Amino acid sequence: MTAGQIAGLIAAIAFLLLVIFIGMFLLKISRTISEVNSSIRSMTSNIDVIAKQTDKIMATSNTLVKDVDEKLNIVTPVFQAAADLGESVSDLNEATHHLTDKVKNTGKKGAAAGVAGTVGKTAWKMFSKHRHSKKK
Predict the structure, then answer these.
(1) 73-82: per-residue pLDDT in tens?
(2) Which InterPro entries does this entry report, sorted A to Z (predicted)?
């Protein structure tokens, strides 16, 4: 065998090893891609299930929100009536305070008038006695 034949044989063996390693690499990539495709199919089916469940949850939520809204519309007049009652009680309380103040002021004036009346009665009695004593 000549040197050229040995170099050709070495090149052929190197090329054969390169082809074998490339084949093994492509086989591993093929398996990996198969697993990725399997994972994607699994995720797609899981996402479909989640999407269906989400649709059911949204429908239930919409029903609940509509129900709460209807009940809130029923209860709103009660709160309005309570607010009106609170305002009426506040007005009544204010009127009571004004009446109490008037009664206090009237009581003071009445007491002053009572004192003046007593002084007047006493003065009249004294005047009457004085007049009777002069006539006699």
Answers:
(1) 888 888 888 8
(2) UPF0478
Residue 135, Cα to own-chain centre: how many angstroms? 94
From the CA atom positions of the chain, what is the Rg in Å? 55
C-alpha neighbours within 13 Å on the C-beta side of residue 122? 6
* Contacts of 1 by beta carbon, 8 Å cutoff, 6+ apart: 9
**Hey, is 136 helix, strand or coil?**
coil
Rounded Cα distance, 54 and 47, in Å: 10
Measured distance CA(43)–CA(38) in Å, rounded: 9
CA 49 – CA 66 distance, rounded (Å):
26
What does the mean pLDDT of the chain come to? Answer: 86
Residue 58, φ and ψ in degrees, nearest 5:
-65, -40
Tell me the C-alpha to C-alpha distance, in Å, between residue 43 and each of 35, 38, 48: 12, 9, 8
pTM for this one? 0.42
